Amino acid sequence: MSLEEIKSKVIGEAETKADARVAAARDEADSIKAQGVLDAEDLEERLLRRARQEAEGRKERMETDARLASRKAVLVEKQAILDDVFNTAMDAFLESGEEFRLALLQALLNSVETGEETLVLPELDRDAWGTKLVDELNRELSARGRKGTIRLADADQGFAAGVILRGRGVEVNLSVDLMMRQIREQLEERVSHQLFGGEN
To answer: For residue 121, which of 145, 140, 137, 139 has the smallest C-alpha distance?
Structure first.
């Protein structure tokens, strides 16, 4: 074999090997490129899925917050209505005059222990009808065969309406604020049901 033939053969083999390497590199590049497209599509799908999940979670949180805010606003309004109902009832009770005094008299008759207690009234009530209430109370106690020497106290304790009956180490609070608070505790659920039905 001549030198030219050897050269030609070496060049041919080199070209064949180079072509094979270029083809392999092209195949590998195409494979990498194809895998890159798949990876990009997979990444895009994962990002979209995560974005959808986050958006759905945000939407659910916003809906929950809106429901809670709405429920809270309704509860605040219902509470205001209940306050108004009980305040109106208390005002009507206080304005009933004689009815109010008769209710106090009955409550006092049930609360008196010795008949020697002191009766504390708000200043305006004490001046307006306190003496009359004490006289009626003592007269009724005597009619029932009990001691009737209840006295009217000179000072009040800063309550708006009602009475406080003071005995030996015992104090019976029949102030309207306390009585209305107790009545409200007993009736609020029933009144609420009457006003609002079974609403949550």
So the answer is: 137
Q: What is the spatial distance between Cα 196 and Cα 77, in angstroms, rounded to a whole number?
A: 11
At position 108, the amino acid (one-letter code) is L
> Which amino acid would we find at residue 93?
F
Closest CA to 110 of 99, 102, 121: 102
| pLDDT tens sequence across 26-52 | 878 778 777 777 777 787 788 888 888
Supply 41's token pair. Answer: 């599509």
pTM for the full predicted model: 0.56
Tens-digit pLDDT profile for residues 153-184: 887 667 778 888 888 888 888 888 888 888 88
Sheet strands (E) in 21-180? 118-120, 151-152, 162-166, 171-175
The three-point CA angle 133-134-139 to 5° equals 100
Report the relative pairing of strands 162-166 and 171-175 from DSSP bridges.
antiparallel
Q: Please state, in angstroms and rounded to a whole number, the distance separating the CA atoms of residues 66 and 62.
A: 6
DSSP state of 170: -
